[in-house]
Specification:
The protein is of the alpha/beta class. It has two domains: 91 residues, 3-Layer(aba) Sandwich (Udp-n-acetylmuramoylalanyl-d-glutamate--2,6- Diaminopimelate Ligase, Chain: A, domain 1); 51 residues, no CATH class. The strands form four sheets. It has a five-stranded mixed sheet with strand order 2-7-6-5-4, covered by helices on one side. Strands 8-10-12 form a three-stranded parallel sheet, with no helix packed on it. Strands 9-11-13 form a three-stranded parallel sheet, with no helix packed on it. Helix 1 crosses helix 3. It is elongated and about 65 Å long.
């Protein structure tokens, strides 16, 4: 449950959509149409939240959680409370990180060219391009939409 003033929100998402996008298998009794609105820790989650279990130290919290769904390893499935949809993943931490990114995506970069970006005079850039500090765009480069810091497009050059 991230503070919306700091993090963009997306969703809601169905359990089936989340499972498909994170590479998890739905437990046989999970309702694939169930809708989730956010992620939350096991002890704070409610029916509209997706939570996560990786460490067996939290099995008791898991068994008492009110989370609507939980990403967990198959070995923990038997301890899930009745009604919780399980998204079973062998690498549950990675799967949960992918799910959390669905609910809280990175904001799109602001269009513009940072003063510390280097752009060749012959480069042709799209009007909505976003170049961050340290980006280097070489000669004869076709239009692009975004380049992260330290990205280098075109022939490298020594400085």
């Amino acid at each position: 449950m991230a503070a919306p003033r700091f993090y963009a929100m997306a969703g809601p998402f169905s359990v089936a959509d989340i499972a498909q996008r994170i590479g998890a298998n739905l437990a046989s009794d999970a309702d694939p149409a169930r809708t989730l609105r956010d992620v939350a820790p096991l002890d704070e989650a409610g029916p509209e939240h997706l939570s996560f279990l990786e460490n067996r130290r939290y099995l008791d919290t898991f068994a008492q959680s009110r989370a609507g769904a939980c990403v967990a390893e198959p070995a923990y499935a038997a301890r899930a409370p009745k009604g919780m949809a399980l998204l079973l993943a062998g690498r549950s931490r990675r799967a949960y990180a992918l799910a959390a990114a669905m609910f809280h995506p990175e904001p799109a970069p602001e269009p513009g060219i940072h003063p510390r970006a280097t752009v060749a005079s012959s480069a042709v850039l799209a009007a909505d391009v976003a170049l961050e500090a340290g980006a280097v765009i070489g000669a004869r480069v076709a239009p692009a939409s975004a380049r992260p810091a330290s990205a280098s497009i075109g022939r490298p050059r020594a400085i």
